Amino acid sequence: xxxxxxxxxxxxxxxxxxxxxxxxxxxxxxxxxxxxxxxxxxxxxxxxxxxxxxxxxxxxxxxxxxxxxxxxxxxxxxxxxxxxxxxxxxxxxxxxxxxxxxxxxxxxxxxxxxxxxxxxxxxxxxxxxxxxxxxxxxxxxxxxxxxxxxxxxxxxxxxxxxxxxxxxxxxxxxxxxxxxxxxxxxxxxxxxxxxxxxxxxxxxxxxxxxxxxxxxxxxxxxxxxxxxxxxxxxxxxxxxxxxxxxxxxxxxxxxxxxxxxxxxxxxxxxxxxxxxxxxxxxxxxxxxxxxxxxxxxxxxxxxxxxxxxxxxxxxxxxxxxxxxxxxxxxxxxxxxxxxxxxxxxxxxxxxxxxxxxxxxxxx
Amino acid sequence: xxxxxxxxxxxxxxxxxxxxxxxxxxxxxxxxxxxxxxxxxxxxxxxxxxxxxxxxxxxxxxxxxxxxxxxxxxxxxxxxxxxxxxxxxxxxxxxxxxxxxxxxxxxxxxxxxxxxxxxxxxxxxxxxxxxxxxxxxxxxxxxxxxxxxxxxxxxxxxxxxxxxxxxxxxxxxxxxxxxxxxxxxxxxxxxxxxxxxxxxxxxxxxxxxxxxxxxxxxxxxxxxxxxxxxxxxxxxxxxxxxxxxxx
Lengths: 363, 247
Prior knowledge:
Chain A is an alpha+beta fold.
Protein backbone atom coordinates (compact mmCIF):
# COMPACT_ATOMS: atom_id res chain seq x y z
CA UNK A 1 0.00 0.00 0.00
CA UNK A 2 1.19 3.49 -0.82
CA UNK A 3 1.18 6.30 1.68
CA UNK A 4 -0.40 9.70 1.36
CA UNK A 5 -0.19 13.20 2.76
CA UNK A 6 -3.42 14.57 4.11
CA UNK A 7 -3.91 18.32 3.96
CA UNK A 8 -4.95 19.35 7.48
CA UNK A 9 -4.64 23.03 6.56
CA UNK A 10 -3.55 24.31 3.15
CA UNK A 11 -1.97 27.50 4.51
CA UNK A 12 -2.56 30.47 2.22
CA UNK A 13 -2.08 28.85 -1.19
CA UNK A 14 -0.52 25.43 -1.71
CA UNK A 15 -0.43 23.42 -4.89
CA UNK A 16 1.51 20.74 -6.74
CA UNK A 17 4.36 21.99 -8.89
CA UNK A 18 7.26 20.44 -10.77
CA UNK A 19 9.61 22.04 -13.26
CA UNK A 20 6.72 23.00 -15.51
CA UNK A 21 5.03 22.18 -18.77
CA UNK A 22 6.96 22.71 -21.97
CA UNK A 23 6.01 21.90 -25.55
CA UNK A 24 2.50 23.37 -25.40
CA UNK A 25 3.12 27.10 -25.48
CA UNK A 26 2.07 27.14 -29.14
CA UNK A 27 -1.45 26.29 -27.87
CA UNK A 28 -1.43 29.11 -25.34
CA UNK A 29 -0.58 26.93 -22.35
CA UNK A 30 1.86 28.60 -19.96
CA UNK A 31 4.90 26.83 -18.53
CA UNK A 32 3.86 27.15 -14.85
CA UNK A 33 6.17 25.12 -12.58
CA UNK A 34 7.98 25.98 -9.37
CA UNK A 35 9.04 29.63 -9.11
CA UNK A 36 12.13 28.39 -7.26
CA UNK A 37 13.15 25.49 -9.45
CA UNK A 38 16.67 25.42 -7.96
CA UNK A 39 15.16 25.06 -4.48
CA UNK A 40 12.96 22.28 -5.84
CA UNK A 41 16.08 20.45 -7.07
CA UNK A 42 17.82 20.86 -3.70
CA UNK A 43 14.73 19.65 -1.84
CA UNK A 44 14.42 16.61 -4.07
CA UNK A 45 18.09 15.86 -3.47
CA UNK A 46 17.51 16.07 0.32
CA UNK A 47 14.73 13.45 0.19
CA UNK A 48 16.48 11.19 -2.36
CA UNK A 49 14.23 11.99 -5.35
CA UNK A 50 15.02 12.75 -8.97
CA UNK A 51 15.78 16.46 -9.42
CA UNK A 52 12.47 17.30 -11.11
CA UNK A 53 10.00 15.28 -9.04
CA UNK A 54 6.83 17.16 -8.15
CA UNK A 55 6.23 18.51 -4.66
CA UNK A 56 4.11 21.16 -2.97
CA UNK A 57 4.74 24.86 -3.51
CA UNK A 58 3.19 27.12 -0.91
CA UNK A 59 2.81 30.88 -0.74
CA UNK A 60 3.11 33.12 2.33
CA UNK A 61 1.85 30.61 4.93
CA UNK A 62 2.78 26.94 4.84
CA UNK A 63 0.36 24.02 5.03
CA UNK A 64 -0.09 21.47 7.81
CA UNK A 65 0.39 17.98 6.43
CA UNK A 66 -0.32 14.60 8.02
CA UNK A 67 1.33 11.33 7.01
CA UNK A 68 -1.30 8.69 6.29
CA UNK A 69 -0.62 4.93 6.54
CA UNK A 70 3.10 5.08 5.70
CA UNK A 71 6.10 7.18 6.75
CA UNK A 72 7.27 9.85 4.33
CA UNK A 73 10.43 11.92 4.12
CA UNK A 74 9.93 15.67 3.68
CA UNK A 75 12.26 18.62 3.16
CA UNK A 76 10.99 22.19 3.29
CA UNK A 77 12.99 24.58 1.15
CA UNK A 78 12.54 28.00 2.71
CA UNK A 79 13.49 29.79 5.89
CA UNK A 80 10.46 28.87 7.94
CA UNK A 81 9.55 27.31 11.27
CA UNK A 82 8.29 23.73 11.14
CA UNK A 83 6.65 21.88 13.99
CA UNK A 84 6.21 18.13 14.10
CA UNK A 85 3.17 17.14 16.12
CA UNK A 86 3.00 13.52 17.21
CA UNK A 87 0.96 11.46 19.66
CA UNK A 88 -2.47 12.65 18.57
CA UNK A 89 -4.49 15.37 20.27
CA UNK A 90 -4.63 13.71 23.69
CA UNK A 91 -0.89 13.35 24.14
CA UNK A 92 0.36 15.85 21.63
CA UNK A 93 4.08 16.17 21.59
CA UNK A 94 5.68 18.88 19.54
CA UNK A 95 9.20 19.44 18.38
CA UNK A 96 10.77 21.74 15.85
CA UNK A 97 12.72 21.14 12.67
CA UNK A 98 14.31 23.65 10.39
CA UNK A 99 14.06 24.13 6.67
CA UNK A 100 16.73 22.88 4.28
CA UNK A 101 16.91 19.42 5.82
CA UNK A 102 14.95 16.23 5.43
CA UNK A 103 12.98 14.58 8.20
CA UNK A 104 10.67 11.60 8.43
CA UNK A 105 7.00 12.13 9.13
CA UNK A 106 5.60 8.91 10.59
CA UNK A 107 1.97 7.83 10.13
CA UNK A 108 -0.43 10.16 11.95
CA UNK A 109 2.29 12.71 12.68
CA UNK A 110 1.65 16.23 11.40
CA UNK A 111 4.13 18.74 10.03
CA UNK A 112 2.94 22.30 10.60
CA UNK A 113 4.80 24.71 8.37
CA UNK A 114 4.74 28.33 9.49
CA UNK A 115 4.79 31.78 7.94
CA UNK A 116 7.50 32.58 5.41
CA UNK A 117 9.92 35.14 6.73
CA UNK A 118 11.90 36.32 3.73
CA UNK A 119 10.19 35.01 0.63
CA UNK A 120 6.78 34.64 -0.98
CA UNK A 121 7.08 30.95 -1.78
CA UNK A 122 8.56 27.78 -0.38
CA UNK A 123 8.80 24.26 -1.74
CA UNK A 124 8.12 20.99 0.08
CA UNK A 125 9.96 18.05 -1.42
CA UNK A 126 8.27 14.71 -0.74
CA UNK A 127 10.04 11.36 -0.90
CA UNK A 128 8.83 9.44 -3.94
CA UNK A 129 7.14 12.52 -5.38
CA UNK A 130 3.37 12.78 -5.69
CA UNK A 131 1.20 10.27 -7.49
CA UNK A 132 -0.99 12.49 -9.65
CA UNK A 133 -1.53 12.05 -13.37
CA UNK A 134 0.69 14.31 -15.48
CA UNK A 135 -1.27 16.57 -17.84
CA UNK A 136 0.63 17.39 -21.02
CA UNK A 137 3.82 16.02 -19.54
CA UNK A 138 3.72 17.85 -16.21
CA UNK A 139 2.12 17.63 -12.78
CA UNK A 140 2.29 21.41 -12.32
CA UNK A 141 -0.98 23.07 -11.32
CA UNK A 142 -2.33 25.88 -13.51
CA UNK A 143 -5.19 27.12 -11.39
CA UNK A 144 -6.67 29.56 -13.94
CA UNK A 145 -7.40 26.72 -16.37
CA UNK A 146 -7.89 24.00 -13.75
CA UNK A 147 -5.00 22.07 -15.22
CA UNK A 148 -2.62 19.56 -13.62
CA UNK A 149 -1.93 19.06 -9.93
CA UNK A 150 -4.74 17.73 -7.76
CA UNK A 151 -7.97 18.44 -9.69
CA UNK A 152 -6.30 21.48 -11.21
CA UNK A 153 -6.57 23.59 -8.08
CA UNK A 154 -5.19 24.70 -4.75
CA UNK A 155 -4.96 21.98 -2.11
CA UNK A 156 -7.95 21.98 0.26
CA UNK A 157 -8.41 20.71 3.82
CA UNK A 158 -9.07 16.97 3.69
CA UNK A 159 -7.37 16.43 0.34
CA UNK A 160 -5.12 13.42 0.22
CA UNK A 161 -2.06 13.60 -1.99
CA UNK A 162 -0.99 10.07 -2.87
CA UNK A 163 2.74 9.45 -2.78
CA UNK A 164 4.97 7.88 -5.40
CA UNK A 165 6.12 4.26 -5.39
CA UNK A 166 9.54 4.87 -3.76
CA UNK A 167 8.18 6.98 -0.94
CA UNK A 168 8.39 4.41 1.86
CA UNK A 169 11.81 3.10 0.84
CA UNK A 170 13.22 6.65 0.78
CA UNK A 171 11.56 7.51 4.11
CA UNK A 172 13.74 4.84 5.72
CA UNK A 173 16.98 6.51 4.66
CA UNK A 174 19.09 8.88 6.74
CA UNK A 175 18.02 12.47 7.18
CA UNK A 176 20.14 14.93 5.24
CA UNK A 177 20.80 18.62 5.46
CA UNK A 178 22.17 21.36 3.27
CA UNK A 179 24.95 23.04 5.30
CA UNK A 180 24.77 26.44 3.57
CA UNK A 181 21.28 27.14 2.25
CA UNK A 182 20.98 29.61 -0.64
CA UNK A 183 20.47 33.23 0.37
CA UNK A 184 18.23 35.27 -1.86
CA UNK A 185 18.89 38.90 -1.10
CA UNK A 186 17.87 41.09 -4.00
CA UNK A 187 19.77 44.21 -4.91
CA UNK A 188 20.11 43.96 -8.64
CA UNK A 189 18.29 41.89 -11.17
CA UNK A 190 20.09 41.27 -14.44
CA UNK A 191 18.27 41.72 -17.75
CA UNK A 192 18.93 41.39 -21.47
CA UNK A 193 17.56 44.44 -23.27
CA UNK A 194 14.80 43.86 -25.81
CA UNK A 195 13.14 42.41 -27.77
CA UNK A 196 11.38 45.79 -28.24
CA UNK A 197 13.96 48.21 -26.83
CA UNK A 198 13.51 50.15 -30.09
CA UNK A 199 10.14 51.32 -28.72
CA UNK A 200 12.02 53.47 -26.20
CA UNK A 201 14.46 56.39 -26.48
CA UNK A 202 17.96 55.76 -25.19
CA UNK A 203 17.31 58.17 -22.32
CA UNK A 204 14.29 56.08 -21.29
CA UNK A 205 16.35 52.89 -21.34
CA UNK A 206 19.02 54.57 -19.19
CA UNK A 207 16.30 55.69 -16.82
CA UNK A 208 14.99 52.09 -16.70
CA UNK A 209 18.47 50.90 -15.68
CA UNK A 210 18.93 53.68 -13.09
CA UNK A 211 15.50 53.63 -11.43
CA UNK A 212 14.79 51.75 -8.25
CA UNK A 213 11.74 49.52 -8.66
CA UNK A 214 9.53 48.06 -5.96
CA UNK A 215 7.53 44.85 -6.29
CA UNK A 216 3.86 45.78 -5.95
CA UNK A 217 1.29 43.96 -3.84
CA UNK A 218 -0.66 43.37 -7.04
CA UNK A 219 1.64 40.55 -8.04
CA UNK A 220 0.95 36.86 -8.42
CA UNK A 221 2.31 33.87 -10.29
CA UNK A 222 1.24 35.43 -13.62
CA UNK A 223 3.23 38.58 -13.23
CA UNK A 224 4.89 41.03 -10.88
CA UNK A 225 3.82 44.64 -11.22
CA UNK A 226 6.61 47.07 -10.50
CA UNK A 227 6.30 50.53 -9.00
CA UNK A 228 8.88 53.14 -9.89
CA UNK A 229 9.63 55.77 -12.49
CA UNK A 230 7.17 55.56 -15.39
CA UNK A 231 8.62 54.67 -18.80
CA UNK A 232 7.44 56.54 -21.88
CA UNK A 233 7.19 54.86 -25.28
CA UNK A 234 8.46 56.61 -28.40
CA UNK A 235 5.60 58.70 -29.78
CA UNK A 236 5.75 57.21 -33.26
CA UNK A 237 5.86 53.63 -31.89
CA UNK A 238 3.11 53.70 -29.26
CA UNK A 239 2.42 51.21 -26.50
CA UNK A 240 1.12 48.26 -28.50
CA UNK A 241 2.69 45.70 -30.78
CA UNK A 242 1.28 42.91 -32.88
CA UNK A 243 1.25 40.14 -30.24
CA UNK A 244 4.41 38.07 -30.23
CA UNK A 245 6.05 35.40 -28.08
CA UNK A 246 7.11 35.99 -24.48
CA UNK A 247 8.96 34.09 -21.74
CA UNK A 248 8.75 34.27 -17.96
CA UNK A 249 10.94 37.29 -17.19
CA UNK A 250 9.79 39.41 -20.13
CA UNK A 251 9.22 42.99 -18.91
CA UNK A 252 6.15 44.44 -20.61
CA UNK A 253 5.56 48.16 -20.55
CA UNK A 254 1.84 48.93 -21.03
CA UNK A 255 0.44 52.37 -21.79
CA UNK A 256 0.74 53.63 -18.20
CA UNK A 257 4.50 53.08 -18.29
CA UNK A 258 4.65 50.86 -15.19
CA UNK A 259 6.55 47.68 -16.04
CA UNK A 260 5.12 44.19 -15.49
CA UNK A 261 7.48 41.21 -15.24
CA UNK A 262 5.78 38.09 -16.59
CA UNK A 263 6.22 35.06 -14.34
CA UNK A 264 5.66 31.30 -14.55
CA UNK A 265 1.86 31.39 -15.06
CA UNK A 266 2.08 34.29 -17.49
CA UNK A 267 0.47 34.03 -20.90
CA UNK A 268 2.50 32.75 -23.85
CA UNK A 269 2.16 35.83 -26.05
CA UNK A 270 1.76 39.51 -25.34
CA UNK A 271 0.77 42.73 -27.06
CA UNK A 272 2.85 45.26 -25.10
CA UNK A 273 6.43 46.25 -25.98
CA UNK A 274 9.03 44.43 -23.89
CA UNK A 275 11.83 46.78 -22.92
CA UNK A 276 13.98 43.98 -21.50
CA UNK A 277 13.85 40.41 -20.20
CA UNK A 278 15.02 39.21 -16.79
CA UNK A 279 17.66 36.50 -17.23
CA UNK A 280 16.63 32.98 -16.23
CA UNK A 281 19.13 32.86 -13.35
CA UNK A 282 17.69 35.95 -11.64
CA UNK A 283 13.96 35.47 -12.29
CA UNK A 284 13.36 33.78 -8.93
CA UNK A 285 14.53 36.98 -7.23
CA UNK A 286 11.44 38.74 -8.55
CA UNK A 287 9.06 35.76 -8.43
CA UNK A 288 9.96 34.93 -4.85
CA UNK A 289 10.54 38.32 -3.22
CA UNK A 290 8.06 39.92 -0.86
CA UNK A 291 5.98 42.89 -2.06
CA UNK A 292 7.83 46.08 -1.20
CA UNK A 293 11.23 44.66 -2.12
CA UNK A 294 13.32 47.31 -3.87
CA UNK A 295 15.95 46.60 -6.50
CA UNK A 296 17.73 47.87 -9.63
CA UNK A 297 18.05 46.36 -13.07
CA UNK A 298 21.44 45.79 -14.68
CA UNK A 299 21.91 45.01 -18.38
CA UNK A 300 24.00 42.06 -19.60
CA UNK A 301 24.28 40.60 -23.10
CA UNK A 302 22.32 37.46 -24.03
CA UNK A 303 25.63 35.61 -24.37
CA UNK A 304 26.75 36.72 -20.89
CA UNK A 305 23.37 35.63 -19.51
CA UNK A 306 23.98 32.12 -20.87
CA UNK A 307 27.42 32.05 -19.21
CA UNK A 308 25.74 33.14 -15.95
CA UNK A 309 23.12 30.37 -16.37
CA UNK A 310 25.93 27.79 -16.73
CA UNK A 311 27.73 29.11 -13.64
CA UNK A 312 24.46 28.97 -11.70
CA UNK A 313 23.96 25.37 -12.84
CA UNK A 314 27.49 24.46 -11.62
CA UNK A 315 26.84 26.21 -8.33
CA UNK A 316 23.60 24.26 -7.92
CA UNK A 317 25.39 20.95 -8.58
CA UNK A 318 28.07 21.97 -6.04
CA UNK A 319 25.35 22.67 -3.46
CA UNK A 320 23.79 19.27 -4.12
CA UNK A 321 27.16 17.61 -3.51
CA UNK A 322 27.51 19.52 -0.23
CA UNK A 323 24.42 17.80 1.22
CA UNK A 324 25.42 15.63 4.19
CA UNK A 325 23.74 13.21 6.59
CA UNK A 326 22.01 15.35 9.22
CA UNK A 327 23.45 13.45 12.16
CA UNK A 328 26.98 14.23 11.02
CA UNK A 329 26.24 17.77 12.10
CA UNK A 330 26.09 16.66 15.75
CA UNK A 331 22.36 16.98 16.38
CA UNK A 332 21.07 13.80 17.91
CA UNK A 333 17.53 13.44 19.12
CA UNK A 334 17.29 11.38 22.30
CA UNK A 335 13.72 10.44 21.49
CA UNK A 336 14.80 9.03 18.17
CA UNK A 337 17.62 7.20 19.89
CA UNK A 338 15.22 5.79 22.44
CA UNK A 339 12.77 4.66 19.80
CA UNK A 340 15.54 3.06 17.80
CA UNK A 341 16.55 1.09 20.84
CA UNK A 342 13.02 -0.15 21.32
CA UNK A 343 12.56 -1.08 17.72
CA UNK A 344 15.95 -2.13 16.57
CA UNK A 345 17.47 -3.43 19.77
CA UNK A 346 20.92 -1.98 19.39
CA UNK A 347 21.93 1.36 17.99
CA UNK A 348 25.40 1.82 16.66
CA UNK A 349 26.39 5.33 17.75
CA UNK A 350 29.10 5.31 15.11
CA UNK A 351 26.55 4.76 12.40
CA UNK A 352 23.99 7.47 12.96
CA UNK A 353 22.50 6.95 9.50
CA UNK A 354 20.39 4.20 10.95
CA UNK A 355 18.31 6.44 13.18
CA UNK A 356 14.72 6.72 12.23
CA UNK A 357 12.88 9.82 13.39
CA UNK A 358 13.98 13.39 13.63
CA UNK A 359 17.49 14.34 14.46
CA UNK A 360 16.87 17.78 15.75
CA UNK A 361 16.23 20.00 18.68
CA UNK A 362 14.03 19.02 21.56
CA UNK A 363 16.29 17.15 23.88
CA UNK B 1 12.91 36.18 -46.64
CA UNK B 2 14.36 39.02 -44.55
CA UNK B 3 14.03 38.73 -40.83
CA UNK B 4 15.13 40.36 -37.57
CA UNK B 5 16.69 38.40 -34.70
CA UNK B 6 15.42 39.66 -31.33
CA UNK B 7 16.81 38.41 -28.02
CA UNK B 8 14.14 37.46 -25.50
CA UNK B 9 16.39 37.06 -22.46
CA UNK B 10 18.73 34.06 -22.33
CA UNK B 11 16.22 31.36 -23.13
CA UNK B 12 14.38 32.48 -26.25
CA UNK B 13 14.92 34.29 -29.51
CA UNK B 14 12.19 35.82 -31.63
CA UNK B 15 12.67 35.64 -35.39
CA UNK B 16 10.54 38.43 -36.85
CA UNK B 17 9.49 38.27 -40.48
CA UNK B 18 7.32 41.34 -40.86
CA UNK B 19 5.53 44.18 -39.16
CA UNK B 20 1.95 43.53 -40.25
CA UNK B 21 -0.69 40.82 -39.90
CA UNK B 22 -0.78 39.05 -43.24
CA UNK B 23 -1.55 35.57 -44.48
CA UNK B 24 1.68 35.43 -46.44
CA UNK B 25 3.99 36.31 -43.54
CA UNK B 26 2.07 34.03 -41.17
CA UNK B 27 2.24 31.16 -43.66
CA UNK B 28 6.00 31.49 -43.75
CA UNK B 29 6.17 31.52 -39.92
CA UNK B 30 4.02 28.37 -39.73
CA UNK B 31 6.16 26.61 -42.33
CA UNK B 32 9.36 27.27 -40.38
CA UNK B 33 7.60 26.23 -37.17
CA UNK B 34 6.34 22.94 -38.66
CA UNK B 35 9.77 21.91 -39.92
CA UNK B 36 11.57 22.97 -36.75
CA UNK B 37 9.01 21.19 -34.60
CA UNK B 38 9.59 17.96 -36.50
CA UNK B 39 13.34 18.24 -35.94
CA UNK B 40 12.83 18.96 -32.23
CA UNK B 41 10.66 15.87 -31.82
CA UNK B 42 13.23 13.80 -33.72
CA UNK B 43 15.99 15.03 -31.40
CA UNK B 44 17.89 16.75 -34.23
CA UNK B 45 18.31 20.16 -32.58
CA UNK B 46 19.63 19.50 -29.10
CA UNK B 47 19.02 22.39 -26.71
CA UNK B 48 16.01 23.81 -28.56
CA UNK B 49 12.92 23.17 -26.45
CA UNK B 50 9.99 24.38 -28.52
CA UNK B 51 8.92 27.06 -30.95
CA UNK B 52 5.87 29.30 -30.75
CA UNK B 53 4.45 30.81 -33.93
CA UNK B 54 2.68 34.18 -33.84
CA UNK B 55 1.24 36.45 -36.55
CA UNK B 56 4.57 37.55 -37.96
CA UNK B 57 7.29 35.93 -35.86
CA UNK B 58 8.54 32.66 -34.44
CA UNK B 59 9.80 32.51 -30.85
CA UNK B 60 12.32 29.72 -30.33
CA UNK B 61 12.80 28.61 -26.73
CA UNK B 62 16.16 27.07 -25.79
CA UNK B 63 18.21 25.86 -22.85
CA UNK B 64 20.87 28.52 -22.06
CA UNK B 65 23.09 25.90 -20.41
CA UNK B 66 23.26 23.99 -23.70
CA UNK B 67 23.22 26.65 -26.43
CA UNK B 68 24.39 30.23 -26.85
CA UNK B 69 22.07 32.63 -28.73
CA UNK B 70 24.37 32.78 -31.76
CA UNK B 71 24.27 28.96 -31.96
CA UNK B 72 20.46 29.07 -31.91
CA UNK B 73 20.48 31.58 -34.77
CA UNK B 74 22.75 29.29 -36.81
CA UNK B 75 20.62 26.23 -36.03
CA UNK B 76 17.36 27.94 -37.04
CA UNK B 77 18.67 29.73 -40.16
CA UNK B 78 18.41 26.69 -42.49
CA UNK B 79 14.78 26.18 -41.46
CA UNK B 80 14.04 29.77 -42.43
CA UNK B 81 15.78 29.31 -45.79
CA UNK B 82 13.81 26.12 -46.39
CA UNK B 83 10.54 27.98 -45.87
CA UNK B 84 7.05 26.56 -45.93
CA UNK B 85 7.54 23.42 -47.98
CA UNK B 86 5.46 20.98 -45.98
CA UNK B 87 2.24 22.70 -45.05
CA UNK B 88 -0.01 20.58 -47.21
CA UNK B 89 -2.42 18.95 -44.79
CA UNK B 90 -4.86 21.38 -43.23
CA UNK B 91 -7.76 20.77 -40.95
CA UNK B 92 -10.95 22.67 -41.64
CA UNK B 93 -13.51 23.14 -38.89
CA UNK B 94 -17.16 24.05 -39.25
CA UNK B 95 -18.35 25.46 -35.95
CA UNK B 96 -22.03 25.79 -35.01
CA UNK B 97 -22.89 29.24 -33.67
CA UNK B 98 -26.11 30.57 -32.21
CA UNK B 99 -26.70 34.28 -32.76
CA UNK B 100 -29.73 34.54 -30.46
CA UNK B 101 -29.97 37.77 -28.49
CA UNK B 102 -28.94 36.26 -25.16
CA UNK B 103 -25.74 34.96 -26.78
CA UNK B 104 -24.91 38.05 -28.83
CA UNK B 105 -24.92 41.09 -26.53
CA UNK B 106 -23.02 43.29 -29.01
CA UNK B 107 -24.65 42.20 -32.28
CA UNK B 108 -27.09 45.12 -32.33
CA UNK B 109 -24.36 47.68 -31.66
CA UNK B 110 -22.05 46.14 -34.29
CA UNK B 111 -24.91 46.33 -36.81
CA UNK B 112 -25.59 49.97 -35.94
CA UNK B 113 -21.95 51.03 -36.08
CA UNK B 114 -21.28 49.23 -39.38
CA UNK B 115 -24.51 50.42 -40.99
CA UNK B 116 -25.68 46.85 -41.58
CA UNK B 117 -28.62 44.79 -40.33
CA UNK B 118 -28.00 42.05 -37.75
CA UNK B 119 -28.63 39.40 -40.41
CA UNK B 120 -26.14 41.07 -42.74
CA UNK B 121 -23.49 41.06 -40.00
CA UNK B 122 -24.10 37.35 -39.44
CA UNK B 123 -24.03 36.42 -43.11
CA UNK B 124 -20.94 38.52 -43.84
CA UNK B 125 -19.18 36.94 -40.86
CA UNK B 126 -20.11 33.47 -42.21
CA UNK B 127 -18.95 34.12 -45.77
CA UNK B 128 -15.27 34.04 -44.83
CA UNK B 129 -13.18 30.93 -44.27
CA UNK B 130 -10.83 32.08 -41.51
CA UNK B 131 -7.18 31.17 -41.05
CA UNK B 132 -5.97 30.39 -37.55
CA UNK B 133 -2.91 32.66 -37.33
CA UNK B 134 -1.79 31.78 -33.83
CA UNK B 135 -2.90 30.73 -30.34
CA UNK B 136 -2.30 32.57 -27.10
CA UNK B 137 -3.86 34.85 -24.49
CA UNK B 138 -5.66 31.84 -22.97
CA UNK B 139 -5.13 28.09 -23.48
CA UNK B 140 -6.80 27.30 -26.79
CA UNK B 141 -7.57 30.94 -27.72
CA UNK B 142 -7.16 31.11 -31.51
CA UNK B 143 -6.62 34.42 -33.31
CA UNK B 144 -8.45 34.07 -36.66
CA UNK B 145 -8.72 36.30 -39.67
CA UNK B 146 -9.01 38.15 -41.75
CA UNK B 147 -12.37 39.65 -40.99
CA UNK B 148 -14.36 41.22 -43.84
CA UNK B 149 -13.52 44.93 -43.99
CA UNK B 150 -17.21 45.86 -43.53
CA UNK B 151 -17.16 44.35 -40.01
CA UNK B 152 -13.97 45.90 -38.68
CA UNK B 153 -14.35 47.90 -35.45
CA UNK B 154 -11.80 48.82 -32.81
CA UNK B 155 -11.98 47.01 -29.47
CA UNK B 156 -14.58 48.13 -26.95
CA UNK B 157 -13.50 51.14 -24.93
CA UNK B 158 -14.76 49.41 -21.78
CA UNK B 159 -13.56 45.80 -21.71
CA UNK B 160 -15.83 43.29 -19.96
CA UNK B 161 -14.53 41.76 -16.75
CA UNK B 162 -16.11 38.41 -17.65
CA UNK B 163 -16.75 37.26 -21.20
CA UNK B 164 -18.70 33.97 -21.16
CA UNK B 165 -17.01 30.81 -22.41
CA UNK B 166 -17.81 30.07 -26.04
CA UNK B 167 -18.45 33.69 -27.01
CA UNK B 168 -17.84 34.40 -30.70
CA UNK B 169 -16.11 37.75 -30.88
CA UNK B 170 -14.71 40.25 -33.37
CA UNK B 171 -12.22 43.11 -33.10
CA UNK B 172 -10.26 44.97 -35.76
CA UNK B 173 -9.38 42.46 -38.49
CA UNK B 174 -9.72 39.38 -36.28
CA UNK B 175 -12.32 36.98 -34.91
CA UNK B 176 -12.11 34.46 -32.07
CA UNK B 177 -14.07 32.19 -29.77
CA UNK B 178 -13.32 32.50 -26.04
CA UNK B 179 -12.21 29.04 -24.83
CA UNK B 180 -12.98 29.87 -21.20
CA UNK B 181 -14.51 32.72 -19.23
CA UNK B 182 -12.11 35.62 -19.05
CA UNK B 183 -11.92 39.40 -19.16
CA UNK B 184 -12.09 40.67 -22.74
CA UNK B 185 -12.63 43.73 -24.90
CA UNK B 186 -13.89 42.22 -28.16
CA UNK B 187 -17.44 42.55 -29.52
CA UNK B 188 -19.58 39.49 -28.79
CA UNK B 189 -21.80 38.47 -31.71
CA UNK B 190 -22.72 34.85 -30.95
CA UNK B 191 -21.99 31.74 -28.91
CA UNK B 192 -20.41 28.37 -29.75
CA UNK B 193 -21.43 25.32 -27.68
CA UNK B 194 -18.15 23.42 -28.16
CA UNK B 195 -15.19 24.07 -25.85
CA UNK B 196 -12.01 25.02 -27.72
CA UNK B 197 -10.09 24.00 -24.59
CA UNK B 198 -10.94 21.18 -22.22
CA UNK B 199 -8.15 19.80 -20.04
CA UNK B 200 -10.12 16.59 -19.53
CA UNK B 201 -10.65 15.89 -23.23
CA UNK B 202 -8.29 13.52 -25.06
CA UNK B 203 -7.30 16.44 -27.31
CA UNK B 204 -7.42 19.38 -24.87
CA UNK B 205 -6.90 21.99 -27.60
CA UNK B 206 -9.05 21.75 -30.75
CA UNK B 207 -7.46 24.33 -33.02
CA UNK B 208 -3.87 24.73 -34.08
CA UNK B 209 -2.23 27.51 -36.04
CA UNK B 210 -2.69 26.85 -39.77
CA UNK B 211 -6.17 25.33 -39.40
CA UNK B 212 -9.13 26.89 -41.19
CA UNK B 213 -12.45 27.69 -39.58
CA UNK B 214 -15.90 28.64 -40.81
CA UNK B 215 -19.09 29.21 -38.87
CA UNK B 216 -22.59 27.76 -39.37
CA UNK B 217 -25.72 29.34 -37.92
CA UNK B 218 -27.74 27.08 -35.63
CA UNK B 219 -30.99 27.59 -33.72
CA UNK B 220 -31.14 27.85 -29.96
CA UNK B 221 -32.67 24.39 -29.99
CA UNK B 222 -29.76 22.86 -31.93
CA UNK B 223 -27.28 24.77 -29.75
CA UNK B 224 -28.80 23.23 -26.65
CA UNK B 225 -28.94 19.72 -28.11
CA UNK B 226 -25.21 19.95 -28.96
CA UNK B 227 -24.54 21.09 -25.39
CA UNK B 228 -26.51 18.11 -24.14
CA UNK B 229 -24.61 15.65 -26.35
CA UNK B 230 -21.31 17.13 -25.13
CA UNK B 231 -22.36 16.80 -21.49
CA UNK B 232 -23.26 13.14 -22.07
CA UNK B 233 -19.94 12.53 -23.84
CA UNK B 234 -21.86 11.57 -26.98
CA UNK B 235 -20.90 14.42 -29.26
CA UNK B 236 -19.34 13.40 -32.56
CA UNK B 237 -16.43 15.80 -33.18
CA UNK B 238 -15.87 14.35 -36.66
CA UNK B 239 -19.06 16.13 -37.73
CA UNK B 240 -17.31 19.49 -37.44
CA UNK B 241 -13.90 18.47 -38.71
CA UNK B 242 -12.65 17.96 -42.26
CA UNK B 243 -9.12 16.97 -43.22
CA UNK B 244 -8.37 18.53 -46.56
CA UNK B 245 -5.44 18.49 -48.92
CA UNK B 246 -4.19 21.87 -50.05
CA UNK B 247 -2.23 22.11 -53.23
